[in-house]
Amino acid sequence: MSPLDQLFSNYLPVFLGTGIGAILVISALVGSRLLAPYSEERNKGTTYECGMLPIRRASTNVGMRFYLYAILFIVFDVEAVFIFPWALSYLAVGPQAYWEMVVFVGILAVGLAYAWKKGALRWQ
Amino acid sequence: MSLSVTLAHYLAVSGVVFGIGIAVALGKRNAIAVLMGVELMLNAANLALLAFSRFGAAFEAGDAPLAGHAFVVFVLTVAAAEAAVALAMAVLVYRHRETIELDRINLMRW
Amino acid sequence: MNLEAFHFIGPAIVLLAGAVLVLLADLATGRRACVRPLAMLTLAAAALYAATQAAADTGGQAFGGAIGVDRFTIYVALLLIVITAAVVVAGEPGLTRVAQRGEFYALLLASTASMMLLAQARDLVAIFVALETTSAVQYILVGLGRDARASEAGLKYLLTGAIAAAVLLYGFVLLFGIAGSTSLADISRAVAETGDETRLAVVVAFVLIAAGVGFKMAIVPFHAWVPDVYQGAATPVTVFLSAASKAAGFAIALRLFYTGLGGGDTPVSADWAKLFGVLAAVSMTLGNLAAIQQTDVKRLLGYSSIAQAGNIAVGLAAVATGSTLGPAAVLFFLGTYAATNLGAFIAVIAVGARVGSDELRDYAGLLRRSPGLAIVLVLCLLSLTGLPPTAGFLAKLYVFNSAVQGGEQWLVWLVVVAVFNTALSAYYYLRWARTILLDEPLDPAPFQPPAATNAVLTAAALGVLFFGIVPTPLIDAARSAAAALA
């Protein structure tokens, strides 16, 4: 096999996946446009075709409250990043590893307690 | 000559991503967009770290010291901590000024 | 269990434990009064720990060589503790718009601890983590308070800091690629063997690193955040940044460039010597020219600190040309600059708390309103200018001398530029001094700063005078600290 063929065969699954994905999406869109009945009416574009009248525009900013949760989530997300390698090397390092993780999680727990006490977890 | 993916390829991708990141970070006027640029820069560095670690002499010799891989874990942590502080700071500024467009954050001369 | 390793980072652990305690005490009691004594107690304990390490002449490495203790780290640790203690003792009047006392003191302690770890780090991973912890904590410190300007300053500091950190990290990655190791000892060996193929990579790496560290040191062109952050942050935070953060920045620059990229004897040291030479000249000139136009004293001191960073960078350039005096001169300068800046800024806090603004004209006739305060401030201004018999004079002398000793023609020219800049800076420092001494006060009512402020001001003034007349103790300490670096 020539080097170029080799490179191509390495990436064949990727190309195939990309191709099939594109074909699926395009055929679904084109097919539904061709086959399904389509109304040109103006109300078609509204949020709910019947029932309640939408107020304000659909695209608004995400509420500020979500940011607090995002910040807290990041902290515990990263905790997991450290726990995986810790768990793998736990037997090699020995009991010291246990206490080090206790301290690490303890510090994060203090952070959580702080956030809790300050009312960051309350949905106002 | 083999056309398999080598260190140079990874470094080229990393360099391009770093370039895009710095262009975004210096060019955008929205605080969150600037942070996205920084995140690209950090991840470009991560990619280069992993590539150096994987293609380094020590790994090829078989005794896989994962210094580069360990570095990446710490970079991720630091990036997350920075993102947390950045989000908090953006929220704080937004509460004061109702905007995070850097052009309009101008109480002091820049 | 290997407790020896934790003994090496003992002072930092004490400070971090103290930070957690301060935070918990603030949460549990909700009373402001209890957190400040707790912070002072923590600092005293950490100072005691560091002092026993100094007395026992502890030395060595731990955590796989990532962290070390030597005279350099102890010098920096004690300097940082003294600065933080001064801020804790005398900062209270400047915190009128910061309601979160518990957070303020906890973050101050945490920041000091991470800067101490930064000085102790001997591995790229440890350096990066310590540097970013320091920065992240300082972003919050700057943003604390109900002031819209503070949060604005915090965001600006954070955005520039984040970009600088990413650039620095890329430089570290390149070094890792060249050396195949994150340890500074391995890197210095690899750099010493730089051949023609890797030369470009090494040069790019240290330019990127200089950009990242230059942000902490606040030298041009990485200085854009300085005036806004100095003005926007609560003044005690500004003191902390200008004295402690700058000291940590130069300490890590010494460690990275002197130990990591090898003093004056690697194939690339001439390159980074010139880099720092140019940055020094530009910082001094731009900093001074901008400072002349300022009417807000915190902004003025901000630009002045950029110019002073330029002066210290002259010492860094000298280090690269193999000047043996360079590292000691830089460390001595950092010590005296800390004393001088503490004096000046704490006087600014005292006046600001009384007048409610930081405008230059509010200092008119300060001599008649509060003579002690005025005398200390003028003394510090003389020291910032670099006039005898103050410590600032000797610091400049040592740095310039180390540059001349470097033996290169262009270093002599750099010193000439620096001397011209000293004359330039004299214009605005002495103009401020004249306002204090001679002008008619807008409001003649005399006032007396709080006792704690007076104590710190007296200590700073004594330090500035003492090290200006009897510099030997500090110079000896700086010399033995510098010897530990090589």
Report on the structure:
- The complex is a heterotrimer of chains A (124), B (110) and C (486).
- Chain A is 69% helix and 0% strand.
- Chain A contains three helices and no strands.
- Chain B has a single domain, classed as Helix Hairpins.
- Chain C is 78% helix and 1% strand.
- The longest helix of chain C is centred in the middle third of the chain and has 32 residues, at 148-179.
- Chain B binds chain C through residues 11, 18, 21-22, 25-26, 31, 34-35, 37-38, 41-42, 44-45, 48-49, 52-53, 56-58, 67-68, 70-71, 74-75, 77-78, 81-82, 85-86, 88-90, 92-93, 96-97, 100, 102, 105, 107-110, and chain C through 124-125, 128-129, 132-133, 135-136, 139-140, 143, 148-149, 151-156, 158-159, 162-163, 165-167, 169-170, 172-174, 176-177, 180-182, 224, 227-228, 231-232.
List the helices and strands and how they pair.
The complex is a heterotrimer of chains A (124), B (110) and C (486).
Chain A: H1 3-35, H2 65-93, H3 95-117
Chain B: H1 7-27, H2 31-55, H3 57-60, H4 67-97
Chain C: H1 4-8, H2 10-29, H3 35-55, E1 60-62, E2 67-69, H4 71-90, H5 101-120, H6 124-143, H7 148-179, H8 184-192, H9 196-217, H10 226-232, H11 235-260, H12 269-292, H13 297-320, H14 326-355, H15 366-369, H16 371-385, H17 391-405, H18 409-438, H19 451-469, H20 472-485
Antiparallel strand pairs in C: 1-2
Describe this protein with a few key phrases.
heterotrimer, B: 110 residues, mainly alpha, Helix Hairpins, C: 486 residues, 1% strand, globular
Computed Rg of chain B: 18 Å
Number of domains of chain A: 2
Strand content of chain A: under 5%
Using the 3D structure, state the CATH architecture of chain B.
Orthogonal Bundle
Output the radius of gyration of chain A.
Answer: 27 Å
Proportion in helices of chain B: over 70%
For the largest interface, the chains and their residue counts are:
B-C, 48 and 41 residues
- From the 3D structure, determine the CATH topology of chain B: Helix Hairpins
Question: How big a fraction of the residues of chain B is strand?
Answer: under 5%
By CATH reckoning, the class of chain B would read Mainly Alpha
Which sheet architecture does the biggest sheet of chain A show?
A: none
Number of strand segments of chain A: 0
Which outline of chain B best applies? elongated
